[in-house]
Amino acid sequence: MKIIFFGDSITDCGRDRQDEKSLGDGYVKILSDKLLPLYPDKGIQLVNKGISGNRVSDLLARADADVIAHKPDAVVIMIGINDTWHKFKHGTELDLVKFEADFKALLTRMKEAGIVLIFLEPFLLPAPDKFRLRPLFDKELAIINKIGLQIADEFVAYDEMFNGLCQTVSYKEYSPDGVHPTHRGSRLIADTAIKAIRKHLL
Questions:
Q1: 155 forms bridges with which residues in the sheet?
Q2: Start-to-end C-alpha separation, the chain
Q3: Residue from 196, 175, 184, 9 nearest 86 by CA
Q4: Is the pLDDT of residue 12 over 90?
Q5: What DSSP state is assigned to residue 43?
């Protein structure tokens, strides 16, 4: 069974793009180390196709070449934080109408190709310098949740989960900057994503 992980820097996590077997050092590698020993007879192949800085439109543009052409059984997608963050970091406007159309097209493209779609919700932790992102990010999340829950085979919610945990411990336990997960944060993503993936192992 082939599973492709598709997303931005949270998926990429320093993978060697010249090595198809490189999984980076984030949640994909942690997930691999936990999942593969459980199913040694399944022939599971995990492929990391994350690219740091990507937005939803970038994934849509490379969906055919980086996912569908490889004929995976399942795809795990986490995307969306850069669509908001780049507005504040680079001045790139976020057109929510276009975002919704691109997001729906991305997920629909996977389903039409017969690929099991597992979507991991993006998240934003309460780092003080990220407070200004929250109003726009909430609008984006509303779109992601509406469409994701309609189309994806599995939808794993992280924003409320992480922010709930940050009520009792510092956000820095899970992310130094409110966006990129620490090892502890990556373990949480991996542990919850595995539960969704296991439902669809062939």
A1: 119
A2: 7
A3: 9
A4: yes
A5: -
Q: Is 21 exposed, middle or buried (0-12, 13-18, 19+ CB in 10 A)?
A: exposed
pLDDT at 118 over 70: yes
Identity of the residue numbered 65: A
Q: What is the pLDDT of residues 120-153, one digit of tens each?
A: 999 999 999 999 999 999 999 999 999 999 999 9
**Tokens linked to 96:** 């929510």
Say how far apart CA 80 and CA 174 lie, in whole Å. Answer: 18
Catalytic residue among 9, 32, 175, 186: 9
Partners of 118 in beta bridges: 76, 154
Give the tokens for residue 135. Answer: 């109003």
Give the residue carrying structure tokens 């090892």: 183
Q: Which of 83, 98, 79 is nearest to 8 (CA)?
A: 79
Average pLDDT over residues 76-101: 94
- Which member of 8, 32, 159, 180 is catalytic? 180
Catalytic residue among 66, 73, 153, 177: 177
180 is an active site residue: yes
